[in-house]
Amino acid sequence: TPKFDSFRTDIREEGDHYVLDADLPGFDREDIHLELQGDVLTITAQHNNEKEDKDEEGKYIRRERVSGSCARSFYVGDVRPEDIRAKYEDGVLKLSFPKENQRKLPEQTHIAIE
Predict the structure, then answer these.
(1) Strand runs (DSSP E) across 1-114, as ranges?
(2) HSE, side-chain direction, 13 A CA sphere, residue 7
(3) What is the mean pLDDT of the chain?
(4) pTM of the full predicted structure?
(5) Which of 64, 74, 100, 107 has the fewest CB atoms below 10 angstroms from its CB?
(6) Which one is predicted more confidently, 71 or 61?
């Protein structure tokens, strides 16, 4: 039975947002769940597959059960669920989310000592 505990991801910056590609081959769209808690996005994928072959008398020649799950969490900053776009196609989950609003640092960096 294959063991699924992680999956490959690529994260890149595109202008004012980030794009995360997660390789999840063999999963159906319904097997993948996204959850945002605070500033952490968790991707969970789980599936169960059952295959069986029978002879002419209905007796099993082969019966296989494959199940697996994987999950990863990512810090995404201060984003809202409605700001995250998700698409699953050809075994790749593609997420797009805006960059976290970052505070602008003051131009003066000198700190006075009292």
Answers:
(1) 9-14, 17-23, 32-37, 40-54, 60-75, 85-89, 92-98
(2) 27
(3) 80
(4) 0.69
(5) 107
(6) 71
